[in-house]
Amino acid sequence: MQTKSFIQRVGWPRIIIALFLFILFLAAPVAGIRLDQSFENVISRFGMFSILVLSMIPMIQSGCGLNFGLPIGVIGGILGGITSIEFGFTGLFGIIMAVVFGVLVSLILGALYGFLLNRIKGDEMLIATYVGYSFAAFMSIMWVVLPYKNPVSVMSYGGSGLRQQIPVSDFWMTKEVFADGTSRTVGVISNFLSFNITSGLRVPTGMFLFFAIGAFVIWAFFKTKLGTCITAVGSNPDYARAAGINIDRMRLISVMLSTAIAAIGIIVYQQSYGYIQLYTAPLTFTFQSVAAILIGGASLNKASILNVIIGTLLFQGILTMTPIVINGALNIDVSEVIRIIVTNGMIIYALTRRNKA
Q1: Are the C-beta atoms of residues 74 and 285 closer than 8 Å to each other?
Q2: Which stretches of the chain are DSSP H helices?
Q3: Which end of the chain is more exposed for a tag (fewer CB within 10 A), N or C?
């Protein structure tokens, strides 16, 4: 009876995906892949994407649906990061200033985004997808004309216009030296209180702490009166209206909050990845974040921190492990083909499960 209750609570889809991920870890040594390095890849990608997936919660809770307009918040964070680099801020202070600039820009963009979604209730996810693509295309023009001048950011041959990828190694990263004399550059947040379990497994404690703080803030927010009102709007709009709750205002606040969290999330991702990616790159984060929270068990109007943790671990684990295990087993490089198949396959699966909690 307890087993049946557990299966009903967790769901067969998540159990099957978790078992498949477990099998991949078992197969890794057979394919010549170091298990400790595989674990490090998975937990590092969890830290990189967890805040982006966390940004889905406010909009889902308010009934605005899945945030397919995620590129708006991502671009706000990119603008914050580029501005911080433009002023030459470095280290943890540079990341903090990037967050400040990014959140300020994202709140403005989120307000405009929220006003639009309030005008098209019922079609939020469809319109948000077009808004995300349109805004990314618009910013692809703006990246060429914005007056940034830092040599690290601008195209070297013209002296104007921003590069496709802007390195942050001199600004947000630090050098980590190992006992054997080798070294590598790691993000300032990632390196905070990090430690080695084995020579190939380093735990990025800073990113986990950052996510834990962000998750706690979101959890605490939805325990407040304002957070409860937002949840009520998403759960039962008629009841919320009868209780005197301003539905449009609650939806607007949730959209602004989601956009601001996405801006913070992309900055955490960038300091770990080592580059700020511009032009069409913001579009690549939308479906991964949507699929992750759906695989974690979220529905269109209900999501939790646990959905974020489970979904991000499962999605990023499968996405990371499948290509390297198959490459190791077949001794040919089909990583990009496998990555495309797995990514899009899991997205299709997740979207077909969107109505199931």
Answers
A1: yes
A2: 2-10, 12-30, 35-54, 56-61, 70-86, 91-119, 124-145, 188-191, 205-221, 225-235, 237-242, 247-273, 286-295, 305-330, 335-352
A3: N
What pLDDT digit, counting tens, does each position of 178-219 carry?
A: 555 666 777 788 888 777 776 667 788 888 999 999 999 999
For residue 110, pLDDT over 80 is answered with yes
Q: What is the DSSP string of 143-199?
A: HHHS----TTTB-TTTS-SB-SEEE-TTTTEEEEE-TTS-EEEEEHHHHTT-EEEET
Q: Kindly write down the DSSP assignment for every residue of 303-316, as one continuous string.
A: --HHHHHHHHHHHH
Burial class (CB in 10 A: 0-12, 13-18, 19+), 255: buried
Pairing between β-strand 165-167 and β-strand 173-177 as defined by DSSP bridges: unpaired
